[in-house]
Amino acid sequence: MATPDAIASTNGKVRAGSHVLSLFANPLTARILRAHTNGPLRLSALHEQIGWSPHTTLRAAVNNLCDVGALQRGTDGDPRPSAATALTPAGEEMIAVADSIDRWLAAAPMGAIAPNSDEAKGAIKALAGGWNSTLMRALATRPFTLTGLDKLIPDVSYPSLERRLARMRATGQIEAVEAKDRGTPYAVTEWSRRAVGPLCMAGRCERRYLPDATAPITDVEVEASFMLTLPLARLPETSHGVCMLAVQTCTSEAEERGQDLAGVTIEVRRGQVVSCATRIHERPPTWALGTAENWLDVVIDGDLTELRFGGARPQLAANLVNSVHFALFGE
After folding, report:
1. What's the CA gap between 188 and 175, in Å, rounded?
2. What is the rounded CA–CA span in Å between residue 16 and residue 214?
3. Are residues 176 and 324 in the same domain?
4. Could you give phi then psi for residue 21, rounded to 5 degrees?
5. What are the residues whose beta carbons fall under 8 Å from the beta carbon of 147, sequence distance 6 or more?
């Protein structure tokens, strides 16, 4: 089971998925990538399509996308900085990330958010800030006050936590709940839980095309993703039992702990998830297992053959995995 210290350890990291996600806080990113779907473009032609952005701003955004490998310059044999840029496979995948972000923004609790708006920029930045600081990992377990979060996440200063909470609350990603004691507890909203969809898309893009330039997937991201999404699960009423969903994480952090599995153990009664804890059992009654890459493909595409299932009730595990897919990506 993850300890508070493990949850709190950020050490200034950009968490898996956040690098690509944060690119779309700049509204030019998605527009530039989509403009290239019909073929290579020179800066002048791109400016004609986008129109409203100054040349210097547009050039800087294009250069940034070339630096991360989303665009390739000089595909027509012209090596000059003014040469046409073309979409790469990484850029094509980033368009899929943009589509996922747009669907998430459209489902905002306070009304659909226009993708190219300042409101969208604020929501994406707030999401990335909550993910990187492990605020979302902490709040996935239960509501916390700011004071409680400060104790749980000592690597982030109190003022910084306060700002991140304020941004997430202002954008509808967390909400205040009734307090039993002193202080105001905050809980994630359903919309915030559904943000795991774009984060999965961004994480898969990073693993496929930017593995050396981005953070690996660790137990923090695994646990946060499961804890956030499993309350969205919709199961047959006949479903019951205990099941472990586990991810093989091959990171230096996992090696130091001597444990290469991260995940959760869930109890289901009459089709309802009644408990979900970050526990890994040596002999779980029922289980689903795969690498981080396997899990990303399964959650995004819904192909259960990527995972290994076992135990007394493998159909329970399959139903749980399938329900997470449909909650995040189903029609």
Report:
1. 6
2. 7
3. no
4. -55, -45
5. 183
Residue 272 β-bridge partners:
269
Domain of residue 133 covers 3-78+87-215
Handedness of CA 119, 121, 125, 131 (dihedral sign): positive
pLDDT in tens, the chain (331 residues): 333 343 444 445 689 999 999 999 999 999 999 999 999 999 989 999 887 778 889 999 999 999 999 999 876 556 566 689 999 999 999 999 999 999 999 999 999 999 989 999 999 999 999 999 999 999 999 999 999 999 999 889 999 999 999 999 999 999 999 887 788 999 999 999 999 999 999 999 999 999 999 999 999 999 999 999 999 999 999 999 999 999 998 755 555 554 688 999 999 999 999 999 988 888 899 999 999 999 999 999 999 999 999 999 999 999 999 999 999 998 6
- C-alpha 153/C-alpha 133 separation (Å) is 8
**195-209: string of b/e by CB count within 10 Å (b at 16+)?**
bbbbbbbbbbbbbeb
Locate tokens 């709190």: which residue?
A: 8
- The verdict on 65 and 186 lying in the same domain is yes
The secondary element (H helix, E strand) that includes residue 231 is none
Domain boundary among 187, 215, 243: 215
Residues 254 and 124 in one domain: no
Enumerate long-range contacts of 99-105, CB under 8 Å, 24 or more apart: 100/197, 100/198, 100/201, 101/21, 101/24, 101/30, 101/198, 102/30, 103/197, 104/191, 104/194, 104/195, 104/197, 104/198
User: Considering 215, 242, 273, which residue would you say is the last residue of a domain?
Assistant: 215
Q: Are residues 318 and 194 in the same domain?
A: no
Give residues with Cβ within 8 angstroms of 157, minimum separation 6. Answer: none
Quote the tokens at residue 235.
């199961």
